[in-house]
Known about the structure:
Blueprint: H1 5-9, H2 19-23, E1 41-48, E2 61-63, E3 66-75, E4 80-89, E5 95-99, E6 107-115, E7 121-128, E8 135-142, E9 148-153, H3 155-158, E10 165-168, E11 174-178, E12 181-185, E13 191-195, E14 204-210, E15 216-222, E16 225-232, E17 237-242, E18 254-255, E19 261-264, E20 268-273, E21 278-284, E22 295-300, E23 306-312, E24 317-327, E25 335-341, H4 346-358, E26 362-368, H5 379-398, E27 406-408, H6 414-418, H7 426-432, H8 443-448, E28 450-451, E29 454-455, E30 461-470, H9 471-474, H10 482-491, H11 503-511, H12 515-518, H13 531-540, H14 556-561, E31 568-572, H15 577-584, E32 589-590, E33 604-608, E34 611-613, H16 620-632, E35 645-646, H17 649-660, E36 663-664, E37 682-683, E38 688-690, E39 696-698, H18 704-716, H19 727-740, H20 746-764
Parallel strand pairs: 25-26, 25-27
Antiparallel strand pairs: 1-24, 2-3, 3-4, 4-5, 6-7, 7-8, 8-9, 10-11, 11-12, 12-13, 14-15, 15-16, 16-17, 18-19, 19-20, 20-21, 22-23, 23-24, 27-34, 28-29, 30-31, 30-32, 30-33, 30-35, 36-37, 38-39
Helix pairs in contact: 19-20
Amino acid sequence: xxxxxxxxxxxxxxxxxxxAMMLSMAACGKTGEEETEKxxxxxxxxxxxxxxxxxSYYDMQLAGDGLFYLSYDYDEAAETSSQSIxxxxxxxxxxxxxxxxxxxxxxxxxxxxVFAEDGxxxxxxxxxxxxxxxxxxxxxxxxxxxxQIFAEDMTELVxxxxxxxxxxxxxxxxxxxxxxxxxxxxxxxxxxxSVSPDVGGNGWIRSMGRGKDGRVYAxxxxxxxxxxxxxxxxxxxxxxxxENFPSxxxxxxxxxxxxxxxxxxxxxxxxYDIKTQSAEELFSWLDSDINGSYVxxxxxxxxxxxxxxxxxxxxNEEGITLLTKKKASEVPQKETIVVxxxxxxxxxxxxxxxxxxxxxxxxISIREYLxxxxxxxxxxxxxxxxxxxxxxxxxxxxxxxxxxxxMDLTGLNxxxxxxxxxxxxxxxxxxKSDKLKRSDFLENILDAYTLGGTLVSIxxxxxxxxxxxxxxxxxxxxxxxIDELIAYADAHPDAQLFDSVSRDQIMMYLMMYNADSFxxxxxxxxxxxxxxxxxxxxxxNRFPDEVHPEEGDLSTPxxxxxxxxxxxxxxxxxxxxxQVCNEIxxxxxxxxxxxxxxxxxxxxxxASQTYAILSKAKQKEGAWEFLEGFLAKEVDLERGSFxxxxxxxSMLKAMAEEAVKVEYYTxxxxxxxxxxxxxxxxxxxxxxxxYGDGWSYDYRIPTQEEVDLTMSLMETARPVSYSDGxxxxxxxxxxxxxxxxxxxxxxxxxxxxxxxxxxxxxxxR
Length: 765
């Protein structure tokens, strides 16, 4: 698979967002009392099956009353492959297939296409030389019979960019976008210039498509958020700009039913009106038993229905759904279970869809507390305030009559909430369950999520993060104190402790395992005016306020091996990653962990799908039925799609056994295949990664010792209380700035932090 590195990188907002934020920034949902409003309309799903073993849903498009897609066929006897234009008729379900015929013999790879109602197709293609060492970009047209009408080389126009999307106006002219430019072509493929929307330094063109008026529009992102503009072909410029456009989750703009555009954000569907520059929400995908994160393309049909193409990459499932608008009173109603979440991700939607389709009594509704459509801030301070606002809304709902039934704990301070007594004890539910029992799960995971005697959550899976150093320097035992970390840094004044970390980052590393040493959420006592914390402030002051990667900078593994960086932060999400750490430290790795005030092992447990039932839940029985179902589900670990480690002991054991299993490739006669040295060729392992400075690693099958070491790290790991947007960290960052800048002494700043945090903790209890 070829990854479009540049296209991916520019879509990451330059705000240093956390991994949790990036899981689903596209999705957003309602909060507050509007969740309880009864809906007048429902969009009822009907599922369509295309009887074609080579059907491709990836870039399926609607043109007229047909769904068009490209199919790939392979003739095993002739050892040749071919492509065809396929059309599925929505009227009668028939399929027509028209093979493509190229005018020139080249290594064609069509990547972006746009279809006309008559069955003709425009496309951009990557064209490679014989050894695939060089790439060109061509614009092509095929008629309805599959004949290539023209092929125009546009390599110089595109340069180092990749083509992101294509559109065609009502006159048949072609618009091709890449990065921050739109190239214009007439009906015969001749370039007529280009248009560059005002995307700013960090912006990009998000999507293009024809509006209800027949003109082509583009949606782009700049410092003001998402902006819609129409494209003036003759004038080679953008026309008017239209604000308040939802952060669409598709590469194509599509006409609406009654208004100009139909837009979806991964959670909800809107219609956008150009004249009023406003969006009206039509429905939530989840209410129609669709995971919005899986919607690949969708359109409004002439009869008012909506057709959605969905692709579940994890389960390798694709399909087509037709949605018909009906009076809600005509549709059977279920009791609603509300799942509250700060960030939201596709896993929550996937589990909700699975539950909703199989349950006749309950229906999951997701309430998300961050709305990316309302995010227009820049910088870390704005981001922290944005997260803090979402957390504040969660706290308000939890303590009010608008409390969710289930709370996703991602990004929340669990100890703070547990001290308020807002969680149900899941021990009682486990005791009554006929599907699960306590012994099914890793005991240390259950212990980690037992607070004040209450089992607040049972995570489905988890990852590990820890700190690795040279055993010859830090010792081979796990665990060290903050003072020992500082002494280690003092002993190596010419080396970085971690690679390119800022003050805020190092403060988080030092605080996240020591929350109980500075804040007691049960009593409200705080300890930020102590010598221990003052030492932390003095140490953090050594680090830069901001870090910026320099061009040509060495990779972290290279810096460690050259002695320029001392410690490595390891992210362990399978049994392979330990071997990377051992390679970086060349057999001298010690998994010492993040520092703690008492010297205990600081291995961080990052849990996924960590849900709690709230004590004020209205649907506790249904909430447990939902949690019980997803915790009990089986996963085919051999497919390799499971990310992280399962908390179910049987699944983890199976994963560990699978990790070290050695199998050999065999030929058609069952004989073991050997390499050029006569050694058996091992199945599994393989893959790897490399950096621009030449450091690389190829994975192998892990040893039993490496698996055992990973398992031992699990036994010491625990979740941390501090997270992005945490108000205590915000207070520390705000007040410590005066010390870092030399405006206040460490004693003065520690006193102010102590006072502010104590007030905050008292108000939050």
